[in-house]
Write a structure and sequence with these properties.
436 residues, four-stranded parallel beta sheet, seven-stranded mixed beta sheet, 15 helices, alpha/beta, disordered C terminus, nucleotide-binding, Rossmann fold, metal ion binding, ribosome binding, GTPase HflX, cytoplasm
């Protein structure tokens, strides 16, 4: 893009500042994982502690000198901060240490840019990058404040910086239009699934919790899965057969992280819509992570931000193969409803328990009931026998037949529609009461 700066190598100086009184403390270990996931080579890790950020440099002047010396010693190409920096702070730090500076948001955006595979994913990443860079044009391009001049470049007094901003706004507008088109296509697919009454289950969780590995094991898919942060960006949907109830749609989505940049949440709105519209969420948790409770809290925060906090969920505590002598199990609440399953997606331990829990939670999608049909409705009776849905039948003296049936609700609804019979009469109008 026109605002991009010349890239250097990957040798990086890592900076982390601890603010003991802050509610938004970052994790230095997770920061290192982010840096490695981005493909950088950490040369050294400089840590500091402050009560509040320095308004000009974020770190103190003494720490600035330490960073400057580290850049020279290690011949670093970039300095990475585990914090969100203001454009002026980035500009001031770069001027002081004479090296490129990237904050936590920029680092995450870089990882997203590397991971995006589909056209939609690339558009979403570019949108987030443009929105992020729009406030940073002045930082790297102060020479653009000069007005254009020269043959063929004279205009109505517009500076180069103003031109860049105008072009950037135009590109953002174009991407928004393209993403709106993608969102409409997704909505059409979602409405088609609603009409067929196919439940949608969405995998959510902290990044690197094992969602894609679990998705691959359950659906026998080849979705990219790796032991790194943000291995999955582009959503993938597959059909999954659930015992005793039929198919559901399982969606694999992008992982969440602490203080996920708001611009990323906005840019990935269409993707995250699969989560917001799901019938059930499988919240995958790395049970071997010492900070698993904090990770769960961060996922809950993002779900609340995208309007998914009220969707019922089943926790999947993954990676039990990393625990000592731990067997797969289902945990239930006081009412006997499954709330948590302990599994290993890597080895497949407990996968059957997930399917069993889904059968219970989505059991409303299987009907088992008695229905009464008149002689004129014998066509429906014959169709039910064709689908092996009839358990027993009895006739009365008026020729009416009482059928005991068991089948998928969606298939029963399709039969009712085929024979032009009202769903309300048989009590199968679409509802989510079983979740409430």
């Amino acid at each position: 893009m026109f605002f991009e700066r010349v890239e250097g190598g990957n040798r990086a100086i890592l900076i982390h500042v601890d603010f003991p009184e802050s509610d938004h403390r970052e994790d230095p270990a997770e920061f290192e994982e982010l840096v490695v996931s981005a493909g950088a080579d950490p040369a050294t890790f400089i840590k500091a502690s402050r009560t509040t950020p320095h308004p000009k440099y974020f770190v103190g002047t003494g720490k600035m000198e330490e960073i400057r010396q580290a850049v020279k010693t290690y011949e670093a190409d970039v300095v990475l901060f585990n914090h969100a920096l203001s454009p002026s702070q980035e500009r001031n730090i770069e001027a002081g240490i004479e090296c490129r500076v990237l904050d936590r948001t920029g680092l995450i955006l870089d990882i997203f840019a590397q991971r995006a595979r589909t056209h939609e994913g690339k558009l979403q990443v570019e949108l987030a990058q443009l929105q992020y860079q729009s406030t940073r044009l002045v930082r790297g391009w102060t020479h653009l404040e000069r007005q254009k001049g020269g043959i063929g470049l004279r205009g109505p007094g517009e500076t180069q910086l103003e031109t860049d901003r105008r072009l950037l706004r135009a590109r953002i507008s174009t991407i928004h239009k393209k993403l709106n088109k993608v969102e409409k296509q997704r909505n059409q697919s979602r409405r088609a699934r609603d009409r067929s009454d196919t439940p949608t289950v969405s995998l959510v969780g902290y990044t690197n919790a094992g969602k894609s590995t679990l998705f691959n094991y359950l659906t026998d898919s080849g979705v990219y899965a790796a032991d790194q942060l943000f291995a999955t960006l582009d959503p993938t949907l597959r059909r999954l057969a659930i015992p005793d109830m039929g198919d559901i749609v399982l969606a694999d989505t992008v992982g969440f992280i602490r203080h996920l940049p708001h611009k990323l949440v906005e840019a990935f709105k269409a993707t995250l819509q699969e989560t917001a519209e799901a019938d059930l969420l499988l919240h995958v948790v790395d049970c071997a992570d010492e900070d698993r409770l904090g990770n769960i809290e961060q996922v809950e925060n993002v779900l609340d931000e995208i309007g998914s906090s009220d969707i019922p969920r089943l926790e999947v505590f993954n990676k039990i193969d990393l625990l000592d002598d731990f067997e797969p199990a289902i945990e239930r609440n006081d009412e006997g409803i499954p709330v948590r399953v302990w599994v290993s997606a890597k080895t497949g331990q407990g996968a059957a328990l997930i399917l069993a829990a889904l059968t219970e939670l989505l059991g409303d999608e299987v009907i088992s009931k008695s229905i009464s049909l008149s002689p004129a409705e014998s066509g429906l009776r014959a169709a039910l026998y064709e689908q092996n849905a009839v358990l027993s039948e009895n006739y009365d003296e008026h020729g009416h037949v009482e059928l005991e049936i068991r089948m998928q609700k969606k298939d029963f609804k399709q039969l009712l529609k085929r024979f032009n019979l009202p769903q309300e009469r048989f009590g199968v109008a679409r509802t989510k009461e079983f979740f409430e």
